[in-house]
Design brief:
The chain is of the alpha+beta class. The strands form 2 sheets. A 5-stranded mixed sheet has the order 1-2-5-4-3. A hairpin with a 7-residue loop joins β3 and β4. α1 packs across α3.
């Protein structure tokens, strides 16, 4: 976990945004820790809405931070103070942006005594479901978050978030239901809804790609 110096800088950054009237939520490893899984993390991930990217950097600049808009990257901007990095996440993999609902659903939680606006468990899990790649442990982060929030987890909102990624979401919830180390009740309706959407997506792809499914004959002509 970050040091006390790191946390003091993080709080200064959050305070600067608040004073400027800019909404933000904390994601990444610190958010995971807020929901019960403390692990190593090298910085803080602050999520802001796209229209607040430049104003956020200006607010931190006025607070004495060095800023780097990183316009060539587009999804990320950075700020530093005393050698402590602050990351602004402007877009997640899959073209996912933070919006008013992302901000409204944040939960204030204490991390090592510091109150922070933490990204909702649904938004956090969804983003990490999409982010999972080889040599990353995002899905284990998700399971840890779900283990401590499943009794209030808003599955309807999670389904809404999954949008055009029902296949990814289905893979994850099936992984959750077969995890032997954690008992996390995933509602049957959630799995059923995702299965139906994945089937519809596969059918659409097949019809628009010209690829025949296994149930479709190659020709209607009867072989001699």
């Amino acid at each position: 976990m970050p040091s006390k110096k790191d946390f003091s800088i993080y709080m200064e950054a959050i305070g600067a945004l608040k004073n400027a009237g800019i909404q933000c939520v904390v994601g990444g490893g610190i958010a995971v820790a807020a929901y019960g899984r403390k692990r190593a993390t090298k910085d803080i991930d602050l999520y802001v809405m796209p229209q607040d990217a430049d104003p956020s950097l200006e607010a931190l600049k006025q607070a004495g931070f060095e800023v780097n808009p990183m316009y060539d990257v587009k999804w990320l901007a950075k700020a530093y103070k005393g050698g402590v990095p602050v990351d602004f996440i402007l877009e997640n993999i899959g073209g996912i942006f933070s919006d008013e609902e992302t901000m409204r659903r944040c939960q204030y939680r204490y991390i090592d005594g510091y109150p922070m606006p933490i990204m909702s468990p649904e938004d956090l899990v969804f983003r990490k479901v999409l982010a999972m790649r080889c040599m990353r442990d995002d899905w284990y982060d998700c399971i840890a978050v779900l283990s401590n929030t499943y009794h209030t987890f808003d599955w309807d909102y999670f389904l809404k978030l999954t949008g055009k990624f029902p296949d990814r979401a289905l893979s994850f919830v099936l992984f959750v239901t077969t995890d032997w180390d954690h008992i996390i009740p995933v509602p049957e309706r959630v799995v059923s809804s995702l299965v139906i959407r994945v089937q519809e997506m596969m059918r659409y792809r097949r019809l628009h790609s010209g690829v025949r499914g296994p149930e479709e004959p190659r020709s209607s002509r009867v072989s001699p």
